[in-house]
Specification:
139 residues; two-stranded antiparallel ribbon
Amino acid sequence: MQGVLESFWRACVTCLHPRVLLWSLLPLLLAGLLVGLTGWAFWEPAIDAVRAGLNAWTLSDAVFRWLNSVGAPQLRAMVAPMVVVALSVPMVLVKRCESGEASTSSPPGFRRCTTSSRNRRGLYRRSIRLAARIRSKPV
C-alpha cells in the first residue's frame, strides 16, 4: 500500500511540474486567444447580419411585437448576440478530423478522430523520455 501512495505522490509532483503545466495549458491558451481575436474581428459584422436576417423574417417580427406587448422591449437587443453565440459555440467546440482516420463506429455523416498506433507509440516514447528527464533533475 505504501508503494501505491508513494507512486501517487510522485505522479502528483510530476503533474505539477512547470514544464508539464505549460505544455498542458498552452493549447488551451492558444485556442482562447484565437477565439478571442476572431470574436473581436467578426463580432459586429455577425451581429449586424443576424439582426438583418431577423428583421427580414416575419416570425421574428411577431415575436418582437409580443416582447413589446409584455413589457420586455430590452430583450430585443439581446436576441441577435444570443443567436451569434449559440451558432459560434458549437463551431469552437467541435473537433474536426482533417487528416486523421475516421472511426468505423461513428454514425454516418460524423467522423471521430482516431490516432494511428504508430503515432501512439511515438507519443508514448516521447512521454517516457520527458518523464526520465524530469526524474533526473532534482526536485
